[in-house]
Amino acid sequence: MDKVNQLNVKKDMKVSELIGQFDQSGVLGSGRVARASNILCDMINDVGMNVFMSLGGPLIPGGLRNIVTDMIKNKHVNLIISSGANITHDMLEAFGGNHYRDEGRDDEDLNADGIGRIADINVGSDDFTIFEREIIKIFEDISSRKSKISIQELLYEVGLLIDDENSFLATAARMKTPVFAPGLIDSMFGLQLWMFTQDHDFTVDAVADMHYLSDFVFDSERIGGILLGGGLTKHYTLASTLLKGGLDSAIQITLDRPEAGSLSGAPLQEAKSWSKAKCGSTLETVIGDVTIIFPLIYASVLDKI
User: Fold this and answer.
1) Which UniProt keywords are listed (predicted)?
2) Considering the domain boundaries, does residue 197 fall inside one?
């Protein structure tokens, strides 16, 4: 057995050096973070591996927008599976809206001021008004050319019409990185889409995504996963690989716990029993806040690749 080395923190230390210390420190949270960093580094360096990233929870309003965009630009991810909310909030900023930091205000006072709260992050109704106005223009443009479209194709077309280099949706469209959102209707984007279809001949076919996704999976030599948060986006990522025996490598960061039996809190090892991760695959689950842990992991990887 290897002994546990005590951490040594010094001035001007690189993030990669700190994670390297974590790698020698033990099997608690720090050791898991280090192993996740090593796995992500290996996934990015594996030229035969397509890396899927799932975005669950409020990651874009929580500050990870530029990181996701940079990973697409750097070709460190090859496919995105996002919640509808993260797509909505990406577009909200692309259209000139903002997210605000403000703690401690009474929620009824926020409501009176037309402000919605996401933990410590606030979004004003004026920002959503801008979003609603701009998304309708985009729907009108796309529906004038196509009457039926898959979710993935819709997000690609939307991305091409967004003029913002920091938008992950726009960057994905220009980089030909497919974006899927199986729960798109459960978002402000989905609400506006439903309202638009009430008086326009425009149909979004969710089942059609599976043709593209299954081809992408079968054409991949190996598949890696970056699962940020849980829920539908995590399961869609895992299940998409089922017909090919599951993921070859993956990391998961979640605040959910396994005791309740939820998928969000299930350790990645559990996926092996369903053939959603291969037996012999390299997996690591980190329990913690994605907005803290993933930037540290990715920063350390950038030092090593």
Assistant:
1) Transferase
2) yes
The per-residue pLDDT for range 26-79, each reduced to its tens digit, is 767 899 999 999 999 999 999 999 999 999 989 999 999 999 999 999 999 999
Q: Say if residues 61 and 292 touch (Cβ distance below 8 Å).
A: no
Domain count for the chain: 1
pLDDT at 155 over 80: yes
Full domain range(s) for residue 199: 84-218
Catalytic residue among 75, 276, 278, 304: 276
What DSSP string describes 35-73? HHHHHHHHHHH-TTEEEEEEE-SSTIIIIIHHHHHHHHH
Q: Is 276 a catalytic residue?
A: yes
What CATH number does residue 150 fall under?
3.40.910.10
Find all residues with CB under 8 Å of 158, minimum gap 6, and list them. Answer: 91, 138, 142, 169, 173
d(C-alpha 170, C-alpha 188), whole Å: 18
In a domain, 26, yes or no: no
Query: What ranges in the chain are assigned the alpha helix state H?
Result: 15-25, 29-45, 65-73, 84-94, 107-112, 125-143, 151-160, 168-174, 188-197, 209-218, 231-240, 290-304
Question: For residue 212, what are the contacts with CB-CB under 8 A and spacing of at least 6?
Answer: 150, 152, 178
Contact 73, 279 (CB under 8 A): no
- Asked whether residue 131 is domain-assigned, the answer is yes
Residue 270 CA to residue 180 CA, distance in Å, equals 24
Would you say 233 and 81 are in contact if contact means Cβ atoms under 8 Å apart? yes
